[in-house]
Amino acid sequence: MEGGAPRDAGLGELAPELCTMTKIDKAVILAAGRGTRMRELTAKLPKPMIEVRGKPVLQHIVEGLRDTGIGELLLVVGYRADVVREYFDDGSRHNILIHYATQKVQDGTGRVVDLARDFIGDRTFILAYGDILVDPVNYERVVDFPDDVEALLTVTRGEDLSKGGAVFVNDQMDVLDLREKPKPGEPNSPWYNAGLYSFRPSIFDFTAKLKPSPRGEYELTDAIRDLAQSGKKVKALELIGEWADVRDPEILQRLNSGS
After folding, report:
1. Number of folded domains that form the chain
2. Are 150 and 29 in contact (CB under 8 A)?
3. In terms of DSSP bridges, do strands 72-77 and 191-199 run parallel, antiparallel, or are they unpaired?
4. Whole-prediction pTM value?
5. Residue at 211 is within a domain
């Protein structure tokens, strides 16, 4: 996979000594997109169902979460939802309980999170993007959630910030700001939003207030920024090992060729 981070940062292995932890048992995966940059590859498949190393990207994520102890998850589907539903069904074949919600309008990651409100209730949960692969060890690192933190987002280095979110932190890896796809000349950061999160239900208070971004979408990163700037503690955690945003045929080819 692309990218990668050889060392730990942020919460690291110190967090268990500094505060008590809650083990998360629910997760939400956003898998509604077509992925137009995949061209003909997504003519009949949603992007999360494209195969990497012998199985769909979404299956890698489902299994990674399951193996950390996640027992129940919500798949948010949209484009070619039938393909996802037929493959995973109720999750019994993958030893996990799967529910579904449908995103009817593709208007950004902020609004789609609201579809998980009833499923989450008052629980802390993991949120994953259905087209991002991470080393499975990272699921273990976000499933144990510090009780003094309101949200946790993962970051990686060395990515093109124009294709994702720039994350601004202090020396303690407290999140100060996020900017979605910053343009040349705008403030820069070495940290790229890696698309794997842990949230308390308070995130819904902030997604509910979102307004369309300059791109015309409701951005989850705007809600996280507002949460961080409200005085709540939002932490960034540098990923360990491999990471890949399966966003175009060239990346897919590199992943499947092992280069």
Report:
1. 1
2. no
3. unpaired
4. 0.88
5. yes
